[in-house]
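Hi everyone, sorry if this is the wrong subforum. Our group has a chain we'd like a structural model of before ordering constructs, and none of us has done structure prediction before. Sequence below.
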Amino acid sequence: MNLLIVEDEIRFLQNLLHMPWEEHDIEVVGSANNGAEALAQIQMKQPDIILMDIQMPEMDGLSLASQVARAYSNTKIIILSGHDNFSYAQTAVELGVYKYLLKPAAEMDILQAVTDAARCIQAELMERTRQLMMQEQWTQYLPVLHQHTIRNLAYGRYQIEELEASCVSLGLHIDMESRYAVIVLDVDEYVCSSNEDGMTLDNLVHVIRDILPTPDFYVCTEEDKTIIVIGNTGALEHTPQQMLGIHVAMEKLIRNIKQCLGIDVSAGISGGTGKIDELLPLYIQAKKALQNRVVYGTGIAIPYDEPLQAEVTNRPNYEHEDKQLEMALESLDQELAMRMISDMCEAAKNNSASYEIMMEQLMYIVGVLTLFIRKRGWSVQDVTGADFDFLSNVQSLTTPEHMYDVLHRAVRSIISYAESHDRKVTHTTVQAIIELLEAEQDQEFTLHTIADRFYVNASYLSRLFKQEIGMSFTSYVLERKMERARTALMNGARVYDAAAMIGYRDVSYFTKIFRKYWGVTPSSVKK
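Answer:
Right subforum, don't worry. Here is the predicted structure as tokens:
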């Protein structure tokens, strides 16, 4: 809290200014010797608390308090007066002065009065905030409560009696006797990533509510940005005809969203219907149905089908394809590698693959690519760049298009990285530099020291080295040092010796650099 001190007695003012305010979270933002000067300070700094005398030149304390009360009603005023005059105290109370202290007041009494005023301000602020929130809560939070209720319906968290009470209090009109289907919608984000209209998930929910007939459908969002739709079939018993109406409504919804917004949306539809308190199994079915867009493609409504027991026999056999893919990468044949990946994915799809089989196939391919990279001692993240997150979490690839594009980009990155790192050095200066670096890895070299040693300027050498090697001089030196240190550690060298071998005199600094580069400590490699 901010405090302004107003006192015309200089000695007493200095005593007040040097009290231990900071220990009580009070910051003195200014001081004044008279009422007029204080008013100017108040207008400029707007303190939370004012500690002031009554008898002051130019403007007395009560006149100042009157002006402050009119202009800054939340500011707390504490009067510290040497006059034991009842009329002064009475006027102060009428003006809303927080505390009236008589001089000579003890330091602890003054501190207590100011800290009490600070706590009072905090409490009043919290109370005003609470009241404002309560006033706005009903209109602002009611839609959130509606979504929360619908979400919990899908998750099977309500008993009928509890649900009826919630619906009454929230104004939700839900038929407890009808049967419902569950649909899970998701934007095919990769397909519509070029959409520049600023369409948010909340906007899309509003559009969906506008297109679907009410009150037959209830819509809410999930944390993973999918959208749950609970559809009233209008029947008391389950029949196949009920689901037809749901499918027609979802196909129309997907078509309208595509035509009006240019957004591709896929839907997973439960395999049946249930009472309002029996929706959890249907929700799970809808989620599983949506996963199959990786098999069937995007922009369609996919019904849930019970998995067949014979599905395990449909798993394709890739006994030779992985070797052919690896050979294509070894020979830097980008076209062949991409064709092998496409053939492996298409074989799985043509063999009546499910979502689970497609994910297994995707992990299999990613494993081949990762193994190729790691065999060469490269970092998967360095090689694949922005696609590393997708490759390390294949379930994030929710559409065939996204899956193919990420895999194809990974192949291009691998071959490009291999070409740059396997490039032969032809420039004699660079050859000499590399030989020097290999021979004297225990020395500390910078671009400038090498440039001086070979009698060239550093800018030219930097570009020449990167053109010949495919990476900067600094990156190359670090890579060679870290590879040599790792090899030494794996062969049983002590951490101190491995550090000294590549020019690091400070073992703790070497450990920090090693861990940042390899992701593990030197001691763990040694073990």
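For your construct planning: The first helix runs from residue 10 to 17. The radius of gyration is 37 Å.
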